[in-house]
Amino acid sequence: MRRLLSVCGWGLWLLLLAACRRPDYPYVRLNVEAESAVVAAERAPGRLPLRVAIAAVISPQATFDTYSPLLDYLARHVDRPVELLQRPTYAEINELLRTGLADVGFVCGGAFVEGEREGYMELLVVPEINGLTTYRALIIVSADSPYRRFEDLRGRRFAFTDPLSNSGRLYVQYRLAQMGKTPDSFFRESIYTYSHDNSIRAVAQGIVEGATVDSLVFDALVRSEPDLGARLRVIERSRPFGIPPVVVHPDLDPALKAAVRQALLTMHQDPQGQQALAVLHVDRFVPPDPAAYADIREMAAQIRGWK
């Protein structure tokens, strides 16, 4: 049976790493029930664990702490134990879904259109944040830098987040393609930080001179750390894109798919669900609009040479 999956995660901006490096992320089991009950469930038909995969763009413990209330809620509402799967890159999370090793996914837009095109992802629900189901890519620089436009970053050092990230990579790739450039021909050097908050801090600390980041992460981070925000400046905002969605494999068991969808769509009506949403800074989950991802599909088709 094919399963569901989880990635990019709007709650991930809440907790932060200090170093710009790709960390080692272990497999983590969330014991939402007593261990004996988990073992029994794994042996019992119909109550196999629900595997939730997340691209751990913050530390494993921070991801665990942020998502535990959501996963505990799901365990109660789908009547299954829950396992949290963490991987450091979006590509590795996509592979978990493609091979059926994960069940639920909160994926970034760039990762979603990749999986959708290859036939192993479909939209389930999307988060609504501050009344919106969209976000933007932001190009940021140090507040005291002379750079005023994206073009001013020619020949500078630049930070990307992940090769499959829309706001953290694809948007700038497309932007450069419109100029007849590539990252290698435009920037003196580019690095991957594997975390939007790492990219933000890399600019603030002078490690790089510019970065492209998720507006949701940026806004939440500078709101929680005003001193950090004072050291940064946004020089470009993209058009709105469809927000990182929750996805499933098209062949996921229909009953399980429906149960997870219903649990997420009604979270905001449940006291336990409301608490989990508050930790994630999400208003509620709503039905998805496939058309919201048209711009990301178009950019990916050009950059990745899709026919």
How are the SSEs placed, and which strands pair?
Elements: E1 4-5, H1 35-43, E2 50-55, H2 60-78, E3 82-87, H3 90-98, E4 104-106, H4 109-117, E5 122-128, E6 134-135, E7 137-142, E8 157-160, H5 166-178, H6 183-186, E9 189-192, H7 196-204, E10 210-214, H8 215-224, H9 226-229, E11 232-237, E12 241-242, E13 246-248, H10 254-265, H11 271-280, E14 284-286, H12 294-304
Parallel strand pairs: 2-3, 2-4, 8-9, 8-10
Antiparallel strand pairs: 1-13, 4-13, 5-13, 5-14, 6-12, 7-10, 7-11
Helix pairs in contact: 2-10, 2-11, 5-12
Structural notes for this entry:
There is one protein chain. The protein is of the alpha/beta class and 307 residues long. The protein folds into 2 domains: 4-132 and 242-304, D-Maltodextrin-Binding Protein, domain 2 (3-Layer(aba) Sandwich); 137-238, Periplasmic binding protein-like II (D-Maltodextrin-Binding Protein, domain 2). Helices cover 39% and strands 19% of the residues. The protein contains 12 helices and 14 strands. The protein has helices at residues 35-43, 60-78, 90-98, 109-117, 166-178, 183-186, 196-204, 215-224, 226-229, 254-265, 271-280, 294-304, and strands at residues 4-5, 50-55, 82-87, 104-106, 122-128, 134-135, 137-142, 157-160, 189-192, 210-214, 232-237, 241-242, 246-248, 284-286.
